[in-house]
């Protein structure tokens, strides 16, 4: 059974419907590895959903970026499982990773960590709060 707080859900929106499958796969692997190394999440329980949207639907300051691939990274984690320093480092490292995999990024690329209450967030039908109670020593 996965430990409490170790099962993130990742949603990456990319403003380019033609991103190659190998790039998408590399992003999924790299993001999962970054969550493991930076935030202590379990690689094997990390879900990554990549949503490709047409570039003409991406706006920064009300206009289409002249160059670069728009991206928005959202990660759901259990509240209280990481320090402010860990989260800041993850956001910085994730932004660098997006640039490395996607190339030039527009001026506004967001990385959001959504910290969800363990009583309202679950995995395979068990809330994170219940999971913590099943194995209190397994919390991260």
From TrEMBL:
GO MF annotations, alphabetized: isomerase activity
Superkingdom of the source species: Bacteria
Keyword Isomerase among UniProt keywords: yes
EC code(s) of this entry: 5.3.2.6
Pfam families in UniProt: Tautomerase
Keywords: Isomerase
Chain ranges of the 4-oxalocrotonate tautomerase-like domain: 73-125
PANTHER family for this protein: 2-HYDROXYMUCONATE TAUTOMERASE (PTHR35530:SF1), TAUTOMERASE-RELATED (PTHR35530)
Family as reported in the entry's similarity comment: Belongs to the 4-oxalocrotonate tautomerase family.
Protein name: 2-hydroxymuconate tautomerase
Protein's organism: Nocardia seriolae
